[in-house]
Amino acid sequence: MITAIVSIVIPAYNESNNIGNVISEIKKLHLDAEIIVVDDGSTDDTAKVAQNAGAIVYSHPYNIGNGAAVKTGIRMAKGEILVFMDGDGQHRPEDIRRMLELFPEYDMVVGARTMEGQASFGRAIGNQVYNWMASYVTKFPVKDLTSGFRAIKASIAKSYIYLLPNTYSYPTTITLGVLRDGQSVKYLPIEASKRKSGKSSIRIFNDGVRFLMIIIRICTLYSPLRIFLPVSASMFLLGCVRYFYSYITEGRFTNMSALLYITSIIIFMMGLVSEQICQMRFERRIGSRSVHSKYNSNDSKD
Which residues cross the membrane (predicted)? Predict the structure, then answer.
């Protein structure tokens, strides 16, 4: 039995053909949740259709990005648990109840799509690569890094607003952040449908490169040695190969071998420094959270 207040946040851009049905299906669940639709500068009647369907609508004056719409929804939501889902009809509202049943045991529950539920074969392969990279960095089996269908405790979501990008890659950022902070995550298998109508605005190459850069950026933000160490080791191995080759062919130690060894050491030392900075930032953030909680507790007693 779900007793927490629930807010369902739906970012939408030109989804007038789908958003009404999505809201209607959610209402059939009788969750007594507030449904927030953030219209990200749509040029059609998305906001009007959503409002007529019974949702609370916030509109951006122009298209900022899917992540920006999610951040607006997080700020406006009043619930203790936030559910994020797309407004294109790909996510099944009935899965919301399955997610909520896993609270408060878990801090975040993510709907994990199957290979058949991916938008295309190319996207499926790309997502598998992202899942592998995220699993390597977080030391946790990430099953669907880019899924936009998830539920999370509101207090945790609000603490990550400053990190979330304005683009489609907000699921990547919040997943890596939650796992790095030691919060509990559960992947729940779901069936994702094809778009009911319209066309996805995600571009495989452009957004794929953006996702990759964000993964690397967040990885260096939270676990820098997981990035620096392999690069350093690669430089060291190249130095060994170069030294072996030059010793066999020329019988000497070359400048190139020295350069590769020195580069390896420099990268490794940069990784150590980054790791220390990361740890100090993390401890300062946890400390500020504790102080904030203490003041809130005192205020409530007064």
Answer: 227-246, 258-278
**How many Å apart are CA 33 and CA 52, to the nearest integer?**
17
Give a yes or no: residue 49 inside a domain.
Answer: yes
Using the Cα atoms of residue 251, residue 253, residue 257 and residue 261 in order, give the sign of their dihedral: positive
What integer pLDDT is reported at residue 19 of this predicted model? 96
Instruction: Judge contact between 161 and 82, C-beta under 8 A.
Output: no
Question: What are residue 191's phi and psi, to 5 degrees?
Answer: -110, 120
Q: What order do you get walking across the sheet with 81-84 strand by strand?
A: 56-60, 34-40, 6-12, 81-84, 150-153, 108-113, 185-190
Residue 1 lies in a domain: no
Task: Determine the pLDDT at residue 280.
Answer: 77
* Reported pTM: 0.78
> Peptide bond preceding 104: is omega within 30 degrees of 0, i.e. cis?
yes
Q: Residue 295: its pLDDT value, please? A: 44
* 89 and 198 assigned to the same domain: yes
Report mean pLDDT in 10-residue bins for the chain, 302 residues.
84 95 93 94 95 96 94 96 94 94 95 69 74 87 92 94 84 87 93 63 61 74 86 96 92 92 96 85 58 46 50
User: To which residue do tokens 């609508």 refer?
Assistant: 57
The reported pLDDT for the residue numbered 208 is: 64
Q: Residue 41 phi/psi, 5° resolution?
A: 70, 40
Q: Which domain holds residue 262?
A: 225-301
Tokens of 218: 């967040």
Long-range contacts of 59-67, Cβ-Cβ distance < 8 Å, separation of 24 or more: 63/13, 64/40, 64/166, 65/40, 65/165, 65/166, 65/167, 65/168, 66/11, 66/13, 66/40, 66/148, 66/166, 66/167, 66/168, 66/170, 67/164, 67/165, 67/166, 67/167, 67/168, 67/169, 67/170
Q: Which of 247, 84, 63, 66 lies closest to 157 in space, CA to CA?
A: 84
